[in-house]
From TrEMBL:
One GO MF term: oxidoreductase activity
Transmembrane segments: none
Highest taxon of source: Eukaryota
Keywords: Iron, Metal-binding, Oxidoreductase
Domain Fe2OG dioxygenase as annotated: residue spans: 182-300
Family as reported in the entry's similarity comment: Belongs to the iron/ascorbate-dependent oxidoreductase family.
InterPro entries in alphabetical order: DIOX_N (IPR026992), IPNS-like_FE2OG_OXY (IPR044861), IPNS-like_sf (IPR027443), Iron_ascorbate_oxido_reductase (IPR050231), Oxoglu/Fe-dep_dioxygenase_dom (IPR005123)
Protein name: Fe2OG dioxygenase domain-containing protein
Gene Ontology terms describing biological process: small molecule biosynthetic process
Amino acid sequence: MIAPVGTLSIPIIDLEPARTGTPEEAAQVAKDVYEAFKYVGFAYIKNHGVPQELIDEAFSWSQKFFALPQSDKDKAPHPPVGWYHRGYSGIGREKVVQMVFDKEGIEEKRKVPDVKESFELGNENDERMPNIWVPDEVLPGFREFFNKFFETCYSIEQLMLKTIAVGMGLNEDFFLDYHRDKTNQCRLLHYPPVEEELLRGGKAERIAAHSDFGTMTVLFQDEVGGLEVEDIHEKGKFNPAPYIPGTAVVNIGDLLMRWSNDELKSTLHRVRAPPLVEASGDSKGRMTRPRYSIPYFISPDRERVIDCLPGCYGPNRPKKYEPITSKDYISMRMNATY
């Protein structure tokens, strides 16, 4: 069933009927997912197939990694180019920008740093973009666990791609045919404590407002909060998308929006200051709480061309986007952040 959440009306969708229900029940889930992506761009999903104990373990490993000495984290350095999105990026290395590609514009945005650090991993068999791990002796079991976690999240991809295809009136395997190589990315994010004054005064950010690049994103977040989604009725207004136990957040990315000729929405979202902890009576001593999140980015195979789908354009509805390969689009967006 579908249920709204707060002022955002982000629905909560139970995926179990899509997996084990009758054809009619599965069709209803597909309709709910389609409407969520069309009118909001976001949904909470439950019974998504990743066991809660595995999610809890993933957050535990993430905390262990980011608690390592800086010298150990630096043993898995993110390459200097943005498109090779693997390994560790320290605080201030990345600056998320929204559709800004000129050098001067990017430099201007980078004057306000993103106060976060990250670790990126993908398919262990990816020859174009091999994973970059810390040595096993630095954090034994880390690599083995996240290879397992990556593969488990792949099951969500398969279910969600089938479901949205049916919701759009396509063959259920349509999007699966574009996603055969597991060119996905799992990202560990840590937002360390930072002075409230810097965030409120615009001298630092967590992640600025942006859309995601690929087909869709599955986000596991902790209870701290901070994720905000642009209001569907008021451009420029952002509302909280709080942690809801037993769910993940899923949103569509730019490529699915391009496929649908803007029928589905790649909604802007950001991470702002979470609830605050009083460090002292002085307002300058107030610090944000540390926050962890784990997004799983689902992307088409790199050489596949993303073009407007039949039925999404016509004489009175021209195509809004030129065809582009998944690799070229995502590389363009990533190169602008590094």
